[in-house]
Amino acid sequence: MITTPEHEQFRKVVRDLVENEINPHVPEWERAGIFPAHELFPKLAAIGALGLEYDPEFGGQGADHSFTVVLAEELGRADCAGVPMAIAVQTSMATPALARFGSDDLKRRYLEPALSGEMVCSIAVSEPGAGSDVAGIKTRAVRDGDDWVINGQKLWGTGAHEADYVWLAARTDPEAAPPHAGITVFLVPTGLPGWELQRHTGLSGEISCSSFFDGVRVPDTARVGEVDGGWKVITDALAGERAVMGGVAAQLQRLFDELLAALRAD
Q: Which among 123, 127, 124, 122 is positioned nearest to 138, based on CA atoms?
């Protein structure tokens, strides 16, 4: 990737944040089993890191994707794997779908605060029987007047214990063929009645969660995209996340360099 002075200036700012605001605290966070996203994310927002490719109308920077690559590469310098993952969920998995497919009302209420670091967001897609096979999800959302009622279980919700909301994929047409044609995405605030959250240890420096939905009710205005049109929303979001995590894998270069230096020292 060809970079400009602006890219390199941004790189330095992100590197300084990783070295000063993340790495010194990783041992403490791991001992306590926490990741204080509500403390860290406003600091990321202050350098523009949470809204790089987003519309300035909603608090974004309007930058090109190469800035996101720089962000991912520098997050790879963190002394843990989980914190970069949780940040990538916020910047490149949970918010892109909302920015592209959400209503203006949802963007004002949820995207704008996420880009400012005021709100933390996560996703609820994978299930016990449907990981990479997203078309196999069984969580149901059934229309009830102006609302949808959600029942089911989700796994591997990175940072869901800190999240203010998740976007959730649910089956709205169980008879659809092919199966992916009957999925819809909803934006669901955390803590609603009927939602039980279980915390698990995830990657180093990160908490992964299971969520259980028992009659959780959301209005139709919480829908992201068209009814039964969730496949497009999901694949769009996951494609961006895969690309960003490739950049975070630059952490491997750092580990290699440290190993090489140690071997030379011996």
A: 127
